[in-house]
Specification:
The complex is a heterodimer. The longest helix of chain A is centred in the last third of the chain and has 26 residues. Chain A is mainly alpha-helical. Chain A is elongated. Chain B is an alpha+beta fold. Helices cover about 30% and strands about 25% of the residues of chain B. In chain B, the strands form 2 sheets. Chain B has a 7-stranded antiparallel β-sheet. Chain B has a 4-stranded mixed β-sheet with strand order 1-5-8-9, with no helix packed on it. The chains are: A mainly alpha, B alpha+beta.
Chain lengths: ~190, ~260
């Protein structure tokens, strides 16, 4: 039996230790989606927290034939959308990314290459941040959370074909933003 | 055109987006703090549905959450008023409890050394004169002779350690406004249960040994006081936090607690 299935079953029977393990397993990926959709500030933390509480209280609604992760990320995305609708502003994702990029580049021996990598990552984060909430959502689910198209479809409650077309359009717009920025830099 | 301005291919753009996602991951300390907040929020939700505090269900939930999560509980104190009850329950009186996925330090022994000689109550009284609370001794018919006593006025508002043959009793002044004076780091193999000690809220820590150390005024660990501790009963009464350490069962520890004069 899949370990995650077992944890979900045990959680459903009141085993809170099992749910804590689920938190541990999916906390980072939930954070990636929340940050991609609402930014890096306290908003993302609140989204993740509220999503896990809702997941805990609604675990009985999870289809046993479906995976926990896309189901959880659907709740995360919904919480993030609600936050966006409530008028909360998009918080800067770029600052946190910049700091983390430095850390991730630390093992590099070439400081120039490390700096260029960090700069590219900041630039990409800014480009993503400039997209609509709808485009950020599909990018966060498909790339930040690294869900498959089928899993992203489950999270969004739509056919896989819709994921594909939404993704295609989002990437087109992202590329246009990147091209604009590069054009200005030249 | 420099490399950094090269337009990425489709595959490269997708790879860069995945890499950006990974760059958003929280570092381990932030992840632990977030996990603590989530666990506390889930615990709150569980509490609300159970509609009572410190009942059996809450104890079960708290024990499971604490045992399983890498939680920095001190974070909970400042997170939100709604979680204060959880924090003050899991950290108690003068004692701050943190839990970690890492095993506790193993550099020192699990029991305090005994002086060997018998100490009279008069000697304890003289020794404890500087303490702002009245020291309570274990009934000799329960604990046997007192083998050692040591006062450390530098710990919080004052601490006394009383050593008996089978266990140690520590009493720490813990007025409400005082910062925690003792820190405990609990690993995944240690469970924490809420217990009633003579009508006072208490905690029973059992399972794997945990780390214990004194904390300075800034809440930092005083490293030369760091040691390992076995099962322990903690509770507060008035402005004093009590600790009975070294007994293997909660029942024995409760008997000792009840015998304090």
């Amino acid at each position: 039996m899949d370990a995650e299935d077992s944890l979900v079953r045990r959680s459903l029977h009141g085993d809170h230790q099992a749910f804590t393990r689920l938190i541990e397993m999916h906390q980072q990926v939930a954070h990636r989606v929340a940050t991609g959709m609402v930014g890096s500030g306290g908003g993302a933390d609140d989204v993740v927290q509220d999503a896990f509480v809702k997941a805990f209280t609604r675990l009985g609604q999870l289809d046993p034939d479906r995976s926990f992760r896309p189901w959880l990320l659907a709740i995360v995305a919904n919480e993030a959308r609600n936050r966006h609708r409530s008028g909360a502003r998009y918080d800067a994702m770029t600052l946190r990314v910049a700091a983390r990029a430095d850390v991730r580049a630390a093992p590099w021996t070439d400081p120039e290459a490390a700096h260029a990598h960090a700069e590219r990552q900041q630039s990409l984060a800014r480009a993503v941040a400039s997209l609509s909430a709808r485009d950020r959502e599909i990018i966060a689910l498909r790339y930040f959370a690294e869900l498959s198209e089928a899993e992203a479809a489950q999270a969004l409650g739509c056919p896989p074909g819709t994921v594909k077309s939404r993704l295609h359009r989002a990437l087109e717009r992202l590329r246009a933003v990147i091209d604009d920025v590069e054009g200005e830099d030249r | 055109m420099s490399d950094r301005h090269a337009a990425p291919s489709d595959d490269a753009l997708e790879d860069a987006l995945r890499d950006l996602g990974r760059a958003l991951d929280l570092d381990s300390a932030s992840a632990a703090a977030q996990q603590a907040r989530i666990s506390a929020a889930v615990l709150d939700a569980s509490d609300r549905s159970a509609r009572h505090v410190l009942g059996p269900r809450t104890q079960q939930v708290a024990r499971a959450l604490v045992a399983a999560a890498a939680i920095v509980l001190v974070v909970l104190v400042v997170v939100a008023p709604a979680r204060e009850a959880v924090a003050s329950w899991l950290g108690i009186g003068a004692v701050r409890i943190t839990t970690s996925g890492e095993p506790p330090p193993s550099s020192t022994s699990t029991t305090a050394p005994s002086h060997g000689q018998e100490v009279s109550s008069a000697e304890v009284e003289a020794l404890a004169r500087s303490l702002p609370f009245e020291v309570r001794l274990v009934d000799p018919s329960v604990g046997g002779p007192l083998r050692g006593a040591e006062v450390d006025a530098s710990v919080g508002v004052g601490l006394i350690e009383l050593r008996y043959d089978e266990f140690t009793v520590v009493q720490v002044g813990s007025p409400p406004a005082a910062a925690p004076a003792v820190g405990k780091q609990v690993g995944l193999g240690t469970s924490i249960s809420a217990v009633d000690v003579e009508g006072h809220d208490g905690l029973w820590l059992d399972g794997d040994p945990h780390a214990i150390a004194h904390l300075d005024a800034d809440g930092e660990v005083v490293h030369d006081t760091l040691r390992r501790a076995g099962d322990v009963l903690l509770w507060t009464s008035g402005d004093v936090t009590y600790r009975v350490e070294g007994l293997r069962s909660l029942e024995e520890a409760l008997v000792v607690a009840a015998s304090l004069g």
